[in-house]
Specification:
Blueprint (H helix, E strand, L loop, with lengths): L5 H8 L3 H8 L8 H14 L5 H8 L4 E6 L5 H15 L4 E6 L4 H13 L4 E4 L10 H5 L4 E4 L9 E5 L1 H14 L5 E5 L8 H16 L9 E3 L5 H9 L7 E4 L2 H14 L8 E5 L4 H4 L5 E4 L2 H17 L9 E4 L2 E3 L7 H12 L1
Helix pairs in contact: 1-2, 1-3, 5-13, 8-9, 10-11
Length: about 350
Amino acid sequence: MKKLTIDDVARRARVSKSTVSQYLNQRYQYMSEATRQRIADVIAELEYRPNGLARSLKQNRTHLVGVIVADIDYNLSIRCVRAIESELQSRGIQMLICNADEDPGKEQGHIDTLLARQVDGLIVFPTAHEASIYKKLHEHRTPYVFIDRLVDGVSTQSLLLDNEAAVKTGVAELVAKGHSRIGLMTLPLGAQPITPRKERLAAFRRAVEEAGLPLREEYMVSAAAEDLAEELAKLLALPEPPTAVIAANDIVLAELLKASNRQGIEIPERLSVIGIDDAEFAQIYNPAVTTLSQPAREMGAQAAKIIVAGIENKDDQPVPITYRFAPSLRAGASVKDLRAVEEAVDGQAE
């Protein structure tokens, strides 16, 4: 059988080759709905499949976008990637995903590999702290977007949670329930702290002081995931232990909940808990955990739209905007209302 071409589709649909080409590239601005439907019907009838390689060579595009995640285990990474893929596929673009395992060396290797594959753009959850790792992207004039983290000296568009608002909302929720001894648990800050960890700790300090509470250094824990159980035990062994703890991300929350089960720490009777990141297991846990959720799907979809715009307008220098997304409080049953308890006790005394 003769291989079908764009000419065959154009003749059958009674339109020009350029109109079919515009349809295949999803450029519908000046195309009527009737024309779009006629071309779609002919493509389906003829079972026409465009020559992807020829199309890529002609357009100088591969219709591939690389996505490098810092750690695929993060709930945020998984949910963002799903939204990115959905948005890209709706535009006829495929996604290549790589996991850096929080290793800048691996991230550099993935960048080299994806550039060799001639991806049209990159969406990166960066692990590096040096701007030099992204130098090749500028040399190749490859559009790229950051999610969740910033890198000093790198000017690109970035999408992050409003970490300040998230922590302040968490502290305010606990204060409203009568808690004055509030702790924060996070993964290690390191010599060059990862953006969310650094921002959430700084925001916690400000929120506690603004609430008029004493800032107690012993309530702020930064430790590796495998050490968090021991750190939680130390916290609760203090002469005046915290009555509530904010878990700075979903990995910390998971370790905190596992340790609570093993150590017989009742939530919220002995310890109230709020998590940042809105991990799905937070709602399965008994009791359901109050969380400050990131709009991960919205962030992923927006990142995909930005990278597509960057690819289609490659000659325009992108404005290095940092987009901050507002958190939302998802109330569970993991926060004890100490004021209600005090009122009940006062009422019994009367």
